Amino acid sequence: MIHYGRQSIGDEEIEAVSQVLKSDFLTQGPKVPEFESKISKAVDCVYSVAVNSGTSALHIACLALGLKAGDRLWTSPISFVASANCGLYCGAYVDFVDINESTNNLCSRALENKLKKAKVDKLLPDIVIPVHLAGFSCDMKKIYELSKEYGFKIIEDASHALGSEYLGSKVGSCKYSEITVFSFHPVKNITTAEGGVATTNSEELAELMNQYRTHGIVKDPKKIEKGIENPWYYEQVALGYNYRLSDIHAAIGVVQIEKLERFVKRRNDIAEFYRENLKGLPVSHPPIQKGYLSAYHLYLLRLDLNNSKLNQLELYNYCREKGVLLNLHYIPIYKQPWYKKKGYDILDFKNSEKYYKEALSLPIYPSLSKEEQKYVVEIIRKALL
Ligand SMILES: *Cc1c(COP(=O)(O)O)cnc(C)c1O
Predict the structure, then answer these.
(1) What pLDDT was estimated at residue 232?
(2) Strands (E), the chain
(3) Residue 37 CA: distances (Å) to CA of 33, 109, 194, 206, 367
(4) How far is the CA of 353 from the centre of ligand 1 (A)?
(5) Ligand 1 mean position to 332 CA, how many Å?
(6) How far, in Å, are 193, 207, 301, 344, 348 from residue 183 at the CA level?
């Protein structure tokens, strides 16, 4: 069975893990800061705070930006549930902004309209989380302008977009946001098994996130108000969590990040192959725009249901029978039972509803061989022609 994504692990990662296992530190050792500095360099930001998942990174990002009970967080409904759950962890209200029909990302025009209305109703959001779906950046310039006009903070959920670029800057450089978050789950662009990172250029936000990932504790004598009383002294100054990444996981990341450029190139080659070889079918392909480099975490097809002889489920079943496991990214979050009971109106999300009936992801990952790519193309063509 060919899956939609999988990790690429070599002997170097295995060697790096054994080195850590033989060393003095399994956690809180030197591998985490080493990994963090490599991330900062790769995405052009000043600070990186590594944690045990992308979800934890989203949570500490919200906490560092001061999100609290009764506040409001908006995100895209076409994302993994974690993009919204982080708001609920903080007691905030979560709402969604419909997607753009051609990019599948949170639509900046829909955002502007929703903000205008929210201003009148005095229900403006405190945080907006644009999600760079499949690795294609959101319209960050416009969203950033809106953040200045309406006074909200931005966390980019770039779980799909490590290695992506937007108008000459790396996603993660936080040119248009306070904080950017990445995930290192095995299907993502690089992996640490489980893991995530929050990047920022603000020293204050980096320090806060650092505290929140480790119980809200500070140990640095310079940061303890009265100064260190005893050598063992530390202070808990906020309610934090244990979201630390271990040195074992970080060691995998240190090796993986060196391969990022190669991985992104591979993913782009596969995307190009699909785009070329799936021409003339009743489908639309991922967006291409000048100034955007997608890391192609996913290759999202959308079925043209008026002209396709198969619907989404039929295509999915056909491919599965032939050994190709497609996937749907994602079920709109407001449709999840947990969210449904909060009473979202699907009429607000026309484009997301349409997307949900049309989208399917093709297999794409660095070790997907040419034979496998050809096989996927052959199966899809057979199914739809
Ligand atoms: C994977 C993912 C996350 C969560 O990352 P984890 O590391 O699995 O916690 C959040 N948002 C999006 C869009 C994701 O794809």
Answers:
(1) 84
(2) 47-51, 72-75, 93-96, 127-129, 153-157, 165-166, 169-170, 179-183, 196-200, 217-218, 235-236, 283-284, 292-293, 299-303, 359-362
(3) 6, 36, 19, 13, 27
(4) 21
(5) 15
(6) 10, 20, 23, 28, 29
Measured on CA atoms in the order 214, 93, 140, 205, is the torsion positive or negative?
Answer: negative
Categorize the per-residue pLDDT at 230 as very low, low, confident or very high, splitting at 50, 70 and 90: confident
Pocket-testing residue among 52, 185, 296, 297, ligand 1, by greatest number of atoms within 8 A of Cβ: 185
What is the CB neighbour count within 10 angstroms for residue 356? 18
Q: What does the pLDDT read at residue 220?
A: 79
Q: Is the CB of 183 under 6 A from ligand 1?
A: yes
- In the numeric block, the tokens 């709109």 are attached to 332
Please determine, for residue 157, whether its predicted confidence score (pLDDT) is greater than 80. yes
Amino acid at residue number 331: I
Read off the pLDDT band of 233 (50, 70, 90): confident
Instruction: Please indicate whether residue 210, judged by its CB atom, sits closer than 6 Å to ligand 1.
Output: no
The pLDDT confidence band at residue 21, using thresholds 50, 70 and 90, is very high
CA distance 102 to 220: 49
Asked whether 79 lines ligand 1 (CB < 6 A), one says yes
Atom of ligand 1 nearest to the CA of 329: 15
Q: Which residue's CA is the closest to the ligand 1 atom numbered 6?
A: 54
Ligand 1 close to Cβ of residue 82 (< 6 A): yes
* Mean pLDDT for the stretch of residues 249-254: 98
- pLDDT over 90 at 268, yes or no: yes
Ligand 1 mutation target, pool 76, 96, 159, most atoms within 8 A of CB: 159
- Percent of the chain having pLDDT more than 90? 94
pLDDT score, position 178:
98
Q: Which atom of ligand 1 is nearest to the CA of 196?
A: 7
Would you give the distance in Å from CA 266 to the centre of its chain? 19
Q: Which of 238, 261, 75, 236 is nearest to 153 (CA)?
A: 75
Cβ neighbours of 1 (radius 10 Å): 8
Structure tokens at 330: 């994602």
Q: How confident is the model at residue 224 (pLDDT cuts 50, 70, 90)?
A: confident
